[in-house]
Amino acid sequence: MAIIKRKKKQSDMYHNSIRKIIEKEKPILGVDIGSSSIKIVAMKKNHVIDKWVCESVPIGMLNQGIIEAKEPLVGIIKDVLKINKIKIKDCALYLSGKDLIIRELTFPKMDDLQIIENIKQEISSVLPQNLDEYKIDYKILDYIKEEDALEGQIRVLAVAAPEKLIYSYMDVLKKAGLKVKYVDVLPNIAGKLCNLIHSERSNDKPNNTCIIDFGAKATEVMIFRDCNYFLHKSISYGGGYLTETISQRSDMDEADAEEFKHNTNFFGGDLDDPIVRAVYDYFDYLIRDFARTIEFYGNRTQESVDVIYVMGGGSLLKGLPGYLESQLGIKVKEIGEVIRTTTKADALGSYASILPQAIGVTLREEWRRER
Question: Which of 94, 30, 102 is nearest to 65 (CA)?
Fold first, then answer.
């Protein structure tokens, strides 16, 4: 998916085809600008990490995906690139925020322009602004054809992003000396990561995979069937809320509470301890939502989720994968473990779990005919 650039006349590419991760022609940077940190990954050819950076940003510089202080942000990015001697200029941007509209839609088989027009009609009623103020793009997920039908239908993942939001990020990166080649969003990035994981593990067949991103502002649940997007649930309940709760139930400020959160294994702790109780309550609430989402997937497909990959800063809590596994009855893995192997970057350590968006945004896919 490329909100800035998109190939035309691609509507015939999906028939009797599958998507594959393709090798990059030249190095590119993956950029993830979050509310608490900037992640930049320099990717060489063959999906190998050359350099990576995770730099904190001051509180308030970004709010719900909106850049509040452009010039200071430009300065931080310039310094990060200079200090780490990163000279690559082309970059791919991961875009997030509450103003993005992401929908799965189904249409009869049609060409590119018809798909765009139908997406506009479908989503116009949910846009808070004028349709002309949005960039719209899509990705074809499936070609569905019943046995007796003359023509099938296409299932698409559609994205509408405010132009003002896109160009604010592009302007910051341009002033920092970078050129944005394309923009991508989480459900598509997670699908590419899923594809990369299974392509690198030749003994594993693509299966029913769930990816959960424990972010600072929200928790995102995505399920992929044979590495193809199936559903996405966003829960407005992120790790920042848990840090705030720990701070309120102790005498720690939020910075100390954040550090305490990541250095303590709360699972198996004393439930009479108000902090331990708060952590359990937080994750049990999320787990109930995870279970409902997974159950919905099972009802729709008559299949079970085989594995859950967790990522994001919240996934680094000690003991969390094991607790999720015990409550959901599904194997849970840190996506960072797989990324360290597939990108030949063992030195990433725990940072591999907070870099997937910056890594995944650099991946490109193409349709290839089945043989």
Answer: 94
